[in-house]
Recover the amino acids of this structure.
């Protein structure tokens, strides 16, 4: 199952909003998003484990989190490549996904995705990023290897984005934000809220934000 157009446009808009909070002129800043993908990819390799001279266990939960972080940068790179035009970025990304590519070309070689291990795919992701390239087919294959579907990525991405914005809007940077609500951290409340909102709604961000705010107001009233 691939990502829906409504999910993709929602994430692109959220990423643009998040980047604009950091720098309103972020597109013109021409940041090196592929370098960020490269660094996160190496961190993902560390979480997977690669040292043949010692015992290591794959930390799948952390590996999934790295994929979500990588997705932030892939979205940013796509928007920047289209000079801030989100609609064009969405069209190009959907067109690439719809090709259903089975292999990735890099360094004059074709790598068949089904023949690569998870670790080999992470190596390929890092290599492509170093060459300022990315592959949605490779990323989708990485999701599947980590037992994730596009819906899982969407839920984690949107949740993380909205919670980060909510924290900033309610004093996180100033140190006045209350992270523990009724004995539980805010991210635990987020998980519950994600289960009850319509993730296909075009207003999913506003619905999540409003639900978090309603819970947070109860915390403030109880102070």
């Amino acid at each position: 199952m691939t990502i829906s157009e409504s999910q993709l446009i929602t994430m692109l808009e959220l990423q643009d909003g998040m980047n604009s909070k950091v720098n309103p002129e972020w597109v013109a800043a021409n940041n090196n998003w592929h370098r960020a993908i490269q660094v996160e990819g190496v961190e993902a390799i560390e979480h997977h484990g690669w040292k043949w001279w010692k015992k290591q266990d794959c930390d799948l939960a952390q590996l999934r989190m790295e994929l979500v972080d990588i997705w932030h940068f892939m979205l940013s790179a796509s928007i920047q490549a289209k000079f801030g035009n989100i609609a064009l970025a969405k069209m190009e990304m959907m067109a690439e996904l719809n090709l259903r590519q089975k292999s990735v070309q890099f360094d004059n070689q074709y790598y068949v995705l089904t023949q690569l291990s998870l670790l080999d795919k992470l190596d390929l992701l890092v290599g492509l990023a170093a060459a300022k390239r990315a592959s949605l087919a490779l990323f989708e294959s990485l999701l599947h290897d980590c037992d994730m579907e596009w819906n899982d990525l969407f839920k984690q991405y949107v949740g993380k984005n909205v919670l980060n914005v909510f924290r900033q809007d309610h004093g996180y940077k100033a140190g006045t934000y209350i992270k523990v609500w009724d004995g539980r951290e805010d991210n635990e409340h987020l998980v519950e809220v994600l289960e009850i909102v319509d993730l296909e709604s075009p207003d999913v961000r506003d619905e999540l934000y409003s639900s978090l705010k309603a819970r947070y107001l109860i915390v403030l009233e109880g102070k």
Remarks:
- The chain has a mean pLDDT of 92.
- Residues 60-81 form the longest helix (22 residues).
- Strands lie at 103-106, 109-112, 180-181, 184-185.
- The radius of gyration is 19 Å.
